[in-house]
Amino acid sequence: MLIERFVLTAFQQNTRIVACEETRRAICIDPGERSDELTEFLRSNDLELQAIALTHGHLDHVGGTAALAAAHPGAEILLHKLDEPLYFGLPQQPLMMGLQQKQLKALGLDYDDPPKLTRNWEHGEVYEVGELKFDVLHCPGHTPGHVVLAEKTHQTVFVGDCLFLGSVGRSDLPGGSHPQLIESITENILSLGDDFTVYSGHGPETTVGHERMTNPFLTGSHAAGGRYI
Ligand SMILES: [Zn+2]
Ligand SMILES: [Zn+2]
Fold first, then answer.
1. Residue 120: count of CB within 10 angstroms of its CB
2. Interval 84-137: pLDDT, tens
């Protein structure tokens, strides 16, 4: 299993390319913004992009979808149905977050309409990428349609903005719910087992065990929402 991280956008978002080393098939999890680095990495590593796999619809996770899809027209685009309003509302998202129209171009947040989706994620489906098998788990709370992708053979889970080293996702944005987020993390992420490596949408990697034992939002010593969008 090959995992490459690209830190993109003003929000320091982790865009990742994840590939099966045997078959050279790859997915891009959350292309945060247009970046030639992604296509260059795929090309130089002889990888075929099978899908753009979106954990949720926030702008810092889907902003690069149009550019990547245009460069790889064979790749499918997958998102949970409940995050479609965010995804298709991409051009309006910066305004929802309190930015003003005249600021957007300078910040690189002036988006065109995103491309249409190939289909929606279904909770419980197994998504195959060559020999990799990802369990798709619906984890609402940060957004209504957030999913995480767990690859059990390699004990890895891509959690988007549900869980971070020492923190959890914000739940004060539209459609967010802190109690629902904690329930999602407990039911779908902690239950994977302590040895799973956690790849978050922002910040460094961690493990399920480390977060279960030390994350103040999970041990009960902190009850408010986290900070990342
Ligand atoms: Zn984010
Ligand atoms: Zn987010």
1. 15
2. 999 999 999 999 888 899 989 888 899 999 999 999 999 999 999 999 999 999
pLDDT above 70 covers what percent of the chain? 97
> 46 CA to middle of ligand 2, Å?
30
- Among residues 154, 153, 163, which one has the least CA distance to residue 199? 163
All domains in the chain, ordered by first residue:
2-219 (3.60.15.10)
Q: Which amino acid is at 17?
A: I
Q: How far is it, in rounded angstroms, from Cα 101 to Cα 95?
A: 7
- What's the CA-to-centroid distance between 143 and ligand 2, angstroms? 7
- For the record, the structure tokens of 198 come out as 């956690």
Q: Please, are residues 33 and 40 in contact by the beta-carbon 8 Å criterion?
A: no
Which one, of 219, 216, 198, lies nearest residue 207 by Cα? 198
Rounded distance between C-alpha atoms, residue 176 and residue 169, angstroms: 9
Q: How far is the CA of 42 from the centre of ligand 2 (A)?
A: 25
Cα R_g (the chain), whole angstroms: 16
Q: How far is the CA of 219 from the centre of ligand 1 (A)?
A: 23
Give the distance (Å) from ligand 2 centre to CA of residue 203: 13
